[in-house]
Amino acid sequence: MRILLVEDDSILGDGLQSGLRQCGFVVDWVRDGVAAEYELRSHASGEKIYAAAVLDLGLPRAEGSQVLKNIRQHGVQTPVLILTARDSVSDKLTSFDSGADDYVVKPVDLLELAARLHALIRRSHGQTQNKIRLQDLEIDIPSRQAKLNGQELNLSAREFDVLHALMLNADRVLSREQIEKNLYSWGHEVESNTVEVYVHKLRKKLGNQLIHTVRGVGYLMRKETS
Q: Could you give the CA distance from residue 9 to residue 191 in angstroms, rounded to a whole number?
């Protein structure tokens, strides 16, 4: 899943970006409030896809609290986790009142941060557990494992990411562009047939009946067999 990291401390930001990538996230990193608001409002207009945002409060150019208020006023529904050194009750209450979904005080254990992000993303898609099951297929999101009929599948990182995106959006058609934006952060060149290649590889492991092609639109996985 692709997330936006908003952190002005270069050392901390670099560490968070690297660590979250190791946890399976695709991470875009900006360092000020104006850039953060631009990216999140672009997401609302469909130009970019972020499953969640990690937002610091003490930012240059625009405070994180103001960024949060602005994006919520413009209808941005992206889950936002506040990650800040401010630990007062008033800061926490103000953030939640402004539309924050979670609030974590620095320093934070990286695995805890990843778990909280998984929980936010899961809840935003109406999921109550870290496992998603469609018919005979099940994925465990934190462990990045997939099983078909109880048998573990050997999936590459990108194959799992494509499968995760499709299962998380079950009964909704995802275009090739939407899937690509879940897979790659800024600066990555993407071959025109990248998604098709991964779908082909998944079908060889899952069979042809689970991932459906909607001609001229994209790909679909259904919650129930038709």
A: 33
